[in-house]
Amino acid sequence: MPPAPIRVWGLPLAPLTRPQAAEEVARLIADGRPSYFITANAHYAMVSDADPAMRPINESAAFILADGAPLVWASRWRRTPLPERVAGSDLIYDLCAQAAERGHRVSFLGGPPGVAEQASRTLARLYPGLTVAGVCCPPFRPLADDERAALVSEIRDARPDLLFVAFGQPKGERWIREHLEELGVPVCVQVGASLEFVAGRVRRAPRWVQRIGLEWAWRIGTDPARLAPRYARNAAFLLRKALADFRRGRAPEPDPGPESESSTTPTDPRPSPEPVS
């Protein structure tokens, strides 16, 4: 099992490095029961803080990674800091390399038209032997019941071990949690813009910008009309949380308590395996 989570701004973040996160995914695939993990950045933390309905989604995840420098920085106010940022846009390469090596089947779902197909071709070229079980790009609108059922059936019939979902946050996490048991996929994860990065539709910040934690500033420059208002809201949230951390000092973050349907220890949402006769 992953180490005990570190709570930062209400999120139970797993203190894992990139290699450890990839190994944890392999463990979940070997276990075989439906599960999901989350890559959380500052925007996701803000959405979760504002919406109580996100809490059971977060608490039921197999683990949550800190995909955002502010979350790692904030963890340094805790007694046990996170080891590093684990970006989903980096981890997707690690997971596909691991899948090619270990024979895991991967599927891609969502993103703008053509993005998932291009990303799957790029990853298959980078990692010979990678088995792409399926690529689905549903229309960008609410699906009718029959369309939703057909989509879930298509994914389930493809039998992926790992499903990359690009529906945006938190829509992707909500969709995965709602359909987890129907899908029957050992590991699902919402990957945000990662497919667009892999497909070459959006250029990532240079490594030196990523290392100093300013990838968000680079992204604003790539699409200021859409991203500037979002990051302005994120900045206000970060300031409020940073002031709260400063006032609290190095005391542990208050536990949210057991009053909701989840406890502070993540509850395994996966069904027990069928008994062997």
Describe the structure.
The protein is α/β, with parallel strands linked by helices. The chain has one domain. It is 49% helix and 13% strand. The protein contains twelve helices and eight strands. It has helices at residues 18-31, 42-50, 54-60, 69-75, 88-102, 115-126, 145-158, 171-183, 194-199, 207-211, 215-222, 224-248, and strands at residues 6-8, 11-13, 36-40, 64-66, 105-110, 131-136, 162-166, 187-190. The strands form two sheets. A six-stranded parallel sheet has the order 4-3-8-7-5-6, sandwiched between helices. Strand 1 (6-8) and strand 2 form a beta hairpin. Helix 1 (18-31) packs across helix 5 and helix 11 (215-222) packs antiparallel against helix 12 (224-248). The longest helix has 25 residues, at 224-248. It is globular, with a radius of gyration of 18 Å. 39% of the residues are buried. Mean pLDDT is 85; it is low at 258-277.
Structurally, how many domains make up the residues?
1
For the largest sheet, list the strands in their spatial order: 4-3-8-7-5-6
The counted number of beta strands is 8
The end-to-end distance, rounded to whole angstroms, is 27 Å
Structural class: alpha/beta
Largest sheet: number of strands, sense, barrel closure: 6 strands, parallel
InterPro entries: WecG_TagA_CpsF
Biased composition (Pro residues): 268-277
GO molecular function, one term: N-acetylglucosaminyldiphosphoundecaprenol N-acetyl-beta-D-mannosaminyltransferase activity
Keywords: Glycosyltransferase, Plasmid, Transferase
